[in-house]
Design brief:
Helix content is 42%, strand content 18%. The protein is α/β, with parallel strands linked by helices and 409 residues long. Helix 7 (224-232) packs across helix 8 (236-260), helix 8 crosses helix 10 (275-289) and helix 12 packs parallel to helix 13 (343-355).
């Protein structure tokens, strides 16, 4: 930081911990302090801890009026700098946090939903840099998302867009945001801990012992790290808890991919610390649930290219030129010709054979010139064009159904 630059101060207010840092314009963290959020002590105690941490961080600056970037879970009114009763911050009811900070320390302060702030940071400096469409999942004490669409943050009318933690994933399950079986219930630090607690109590009722939790007092104070350490050590109950969370993480990711089609999904906090316990199952479930497909090119679809080839080369080489340009060894070319003698299709099959493509031809009963060129030829029992075309339709759809059944089940 130069002597004349404006100090950049980041303030993150979470349900489990808070952080204050000094950053550079290119995203580098220069100084940072983290401390537990004293929810038992209430709003005043947390604010006292924040003031102390901010004052300490400002000793590392040049004394210029700072710019504060404040992130916090919603709901909120970011334009007015108001925190509006987040579920993980009891007592934070209409708290004018931006004004409180500037009244005390001067400078300027801006408030943003923590998931949106995370998405913006990943998009500017991190995993989503260079993309136009991206999602960031907090996966912290709660579960929220920040959404970048076409290079712009999508916050919604009231800063409430992206509250994916509210989505119900199952009829029953751990509670997140007062909703049993929600995405946040299964996929957040608090949710995983509550799931572990419920399974520990169920095990005790069956007369079983739990190696990583000795008694009711330990269960009440159970920490996520304890469950994660037990899972890595091979404890079956702890492993099952993370397996369940990972399963619903995969389902949630599949929903987001189907709806928003992002280039990147970045996941923070708990996932970053427990990736080894969550990623394998989450990725398997995601792969199973996604709508899959093949990259396909319809040779007749590009009117401008077809016209250019016809004008500059020859009309009967339109398809052949596209196969030459786009085809790769191992690709499959499917061609339809009622007589089997269409010059465009025949020339395309000749190029495909030289280029190492596999070929399927649909023709009438004669087969024509395509018959000796095709790896697979399907002749329908017709001799006039209308009949052959009608018979091609069910054959084509049957082929598509067979391919889908083979590759996607």
């Amino acid at each position: 930081m130069t002597d004349t630059s404006t100090p950049i101060v980041g303030v993150d207010i979470g349900g489990t911990k808070c952080a204050v840092l000094i950053g550079s314009p290119d995203g580098e963290i220069l100084h940072k302090t983290v401390f537990p959020t004293d929810t038992a002590g209430g709003l005043d105690k947390t604010l006292q801890n924040l003031w102390k941490a901010i004052a300490e961080m400002l000793t590392h600056t040049n004394g210029q009026p700072p710019v504060f970037g404040i992130s916090c879970g919603g709901p909120m009114n970011s334009s007015e700098g108001l925190v509006l009763s987040p579920p993980n911050l009891p007592g934070w009811d209409r708290v004018p946090i931006a004004k409180l900070i500037t009244d005390r320390f001067g400078g300027r302060a801006y408030l943003m939903n923590d998931a949106n702030a995370g998405a913006l940071a990943e998009w500017t400096w991190g995993a989503a840099r260079g993309t136009k469409d991206a999602i960031f999942l907090t996966f912290g004490t709660g579960m929220g998302s920040g959404i970048i669409i076409n290079g712009r943050m999508h916050a919604g009318r009231d800063d409430l867009a992206g509250e994916v933690g509210h989505v119900r994933m199952a009829d029953e399950g751990p509670v997140g945001f007062n909703k049993a079986g929600s995405f946040e219930g299964f996929c957040s630090g608090g949710g995983i801990t509550r799931l572990a607690q419920s399974r520990i109590r169920a095990a005790w009722q069956r007369g079983e012992t739990v190696g990583f939790c000795a008694d009711a007092a330990a269960c009440e104070k159970l920490a996520l790290k304890t469950v994660a350490d037990a899972a890595r050590a091979g404890d079956p109950l702890a492993k099952g808890v993370f397996e369940t969370s990972a399963f619903y993480l995969g389902r949630g990711l599949a929903i987001l991919v189907d709806i928003l089609n992002p280039e990147v999904i970045a996941i923070g906090s708990v996932f970053a610390r427990c990736e080894d316990l969550l990623r394998p199952t989450a990725m398997r479930v995601l792969a199973e649930l996604l709508q899959c497909g093949f990259p396909c090119v319809a040779m007749t679809a590009h009117a401008a290219l077809n016209t250019a080839v016809a004008n500059d080369v020859a009309a009967d080489l339109v398809f052949a030129q596209q196969v030459y340009s786009l085809g790769r060894r191992g690709d499959v070319l499917m061609g339809l010709s009622t007589s089997g003698n269409s010059a465009n299709v025949v020339n395309a099959f000749k190029v495909a054979r030289v280029a190492g493509l596999r070929t399927i031809a649909l023709t009438g009963q004669g087969g024509g010139k395509l018959a000796p060129l095709a790896d697979v030829i399907i002749r329908v029992p017709g001799s006039c064009t209308p009949v052959i075309q009608e018979l091609h339709l069910p054959v084509y759809h049957t082929l598509c159904a067979a391919v889908e059944a083979h590759f996607f089940g």
